[in-house]
């Protein structure tokens, strides 16, 4: 814990800024990364950790025509990886063959967030075209979409097996908001709650085992705790952690 030695070995094989990394949920020493160099790379961290800089990936994946901003491992298939690029496309990679097996091309602007439901049968996305979508990955078909005029969505997360989505965003008056949605009906939010007038992005982290939602903003000095229930009001504020120091990074 604490500050890391600046000379500590690093994974540094990309030719541009790294925009996203994800640990493989099935193999604890495998990570995927994506970058401004338009590539997705898969790395195998040696047992015991890095002893020298790692520059060669176990797999390099090229298929996007512009930089790649997001990656997500499929939650139930260990060899399937999703990537979203600034070419407005989502590629589904089969890592056994190192090739994309499907392309989802239903977005008209940059995709800013992706989230799977528990079994990976549904994919939710938020996009700069101000639409929230629920997509069937196998077919690429959009099952539901919402044009969010009063709630511009930034981040989206599936809430376990509750058939609910939670989004963070801003209102037309630029106040930060959270909204709860029924995944089968995105015509309007079930619950919409204003948070504050700060400018930092709100990041939702959901624990399906405890039904707890943790809401944190980049640069904020607090983390809010909510309980998600199936009965009204569905979204129950509990308390918050406060710190005099602003948050510099968030993860789970």
The total strand number stands at 20
Supply the CATH class of the largest domain. Mainly Beta
Query: How far is the N terminus from the C terminus?
Result: 16 Å
Residues in helices, as a percent range: under 10%
Number of domains: 2
Q: Classify the fold: give the CATH topology of the largest domain.
A: Methylamine Dehydrogenase, Chain H
Radius of gyration from the alpha-carbon trace, in angstroms:
19 Å
Judging by the overall fold, what is the CATH architecture of the largest domain? 7 Propeller
The helix/strand series, from N terminus to C terminus, equals EEEEEEEEEEEEEEEEEEEE
Low-confidence runs (pLDDT<50, min 5 residues)? none
Structural class, from secondary structure content?
Answer: mainly beta
In oligomeric terms, what are we looking at? single chain
Q: What fraction of residues sit in β-strands?
A: over 45%
Strand order of the largest sheet: 1-2-3-4
Tell me the CATH superfamily of the largest domain.
YVTN repeat-like/Quinoprotein amine dehydrogenase
Provide a descriptive summary of the structure in words:
With 252 residues, this protein is an all-beta fold. It has no helices and 20 strands. The protein has two domains: 1-105, Thrombin, subunit H, CATH 2.40.10.480; 109-252, Methylamine Dehydrogenase, Chain H. The model has no long low-confidence stretch (mean pLDDT 91). A four-stranded antiparallel β-sheet has the order 1-2-3-4, with no helix packed on it. The chain has strands at residues 18-23, 30-35, 39-44, 59-62, 68-73, 80-85, 90-94, 99-104, 111-116, 123-127, 131-136, 141-147, 152-158, 164-170, 176-182, 191-196, 202-207, 212-217, 222-228, 235-242.
